[in-house]
Specification:
With about 300 residues, the protein is mainly α. The chain has one domain. The chain is built from 12 helices and no strands. The chain starts with 10 loop residues before the first helix and ends in a 14-residue tail after the last helix.
Length: about 300
């Protein structure tokens, strides 16, 4: 009898959700760049996200608090990289670069995850994983180049793009280091990292506010904080961390290649941009790469062990 699998066991679905929510995060970060200060957006994102997840995490925290305290160096490092740095750098980047660049530059993340996995843990990449990463990266580059490979040679990076590359490096290292997270419930881990990340951002938020950039209490700013706190924070992080646990950091990192896919789709649906053939080609290659890297090989026929 086949074992029933819930949503939390379906890696392909868990990998789709962060890509969708992070694409929306990039578009929104650029849309509110002139109104909502970047550190304020990051700080209130994690503070509100913590308040949302805390009631669900509370039943698990009594058992999980001690293991997280024992692993405090890893908790601090993961919180700094995945919560404190990544989205703060992204929102700073949004002040001086386009949403499209923010979305497309994230295509470098799966390659960096593999590089950090090798540098820190000596992790080898299988031929199937390497092929999947290469195919997926090719699809992302097609989207970046708008179907014209020659345009990549003319790609120019401004200060915002450099901030975004720093954000990508931070999250790639976070992903590679997730294997060192304490063995606690996913909700406890998310609540712990959100709390620590928010505390790390608090002094920078105060400096930003006292420096003349307070958070305006407008409907636009409050709606932006509400979206980034729930979708790319709570839901995306739960799904992404679970995907890493199921299929490993190298494979789960391919979810980032879905950011330009969903970013393109959102631009077509919400901004009225015209779909082009390269959109279909890029999306198809990314999907094929993820399938190649995450599918489990079938046992050879005739060599399956008999069940007792």
């Amino acid at each position: 009898m086949a074992e029933k699998r819930g949503i939390a066991d379906r890696a392909w679905l868990l990998m789709m959700l962060p890509g969708l929510f992070w694409a929306g995060n990039a578009v929104l970060g650029r849309a509110v760049a002139g109104e909502v200060p970047p550190v304020a957006l990051a700080f209130w994102r994690w503070t509100l996200g913590l308040l949302v997840v805390l009631p669900f995490a509370w039943p698990h925290l009594r058992a999980d608090l001690r293991p997280m305290l024992r692993a405090w160096p890893d908790m601090l490092l993961l919180s700094a990289l995945g919560v404190g740095c990544f989205n703060t750098f992204l929102y700073i980047a949004a002040q001086s670069t386009t949403a499209l660049n923010i979305v497309m530059l994230q295509s470098a993340m799966p390659v960096l995850i593999v590089a950090f996995g090798f540098a820190v843990f000596g992790e080898r990449v299988t031929g199937r994983q390497a092929l999947g990463i290469a195919v997926s990266l090719a699809g992302a580059l097609i989207l970046v180049a708008h179907g014209d490979p020659g345009s990549l040679a003319a790609l120019e990076l401004n200060r915002g793009d450099l901030w975004m590359l720093a954000a990508v490096a931070a999250y790639a290292l976070y992903t590679a280091l997730l294997r060192r997270r304490p063995e606690v419930h996913g909700l406890s881990f998310v609540a712990g990292t959100f709390a620590l990340g928010g505390l790390m951002l608090l002094p920078f938020h105060l400096m930003e506010t006292l420096g003349g950039r307070p958070l305006p209490l407008t409907a636009k700013s409050l709606a932006a904080i509400g979206y980034v706190a729930i979708f790319p924070s709570v839901l995306a992080y739960l799904a992404y961390n679970r995907a890493v646990a199921l299929v490993g950091a190298n494979n789960a990192g391919l979810a980032v290649h879905l950011v330009p896919v969903f970013g393109t789709v959102l631009a077509i649906l919400l901004l009225g941009e015209v779909p082009r053939p390269y959109h279909a080609a890029g999306i198809a290659l990314i999907a094929a790469g993820i399938w190649l890297a995450t599918r489990k090989p079938q046992p050879p026929v005739g060599r399956m062990e008999a069940k007792p």
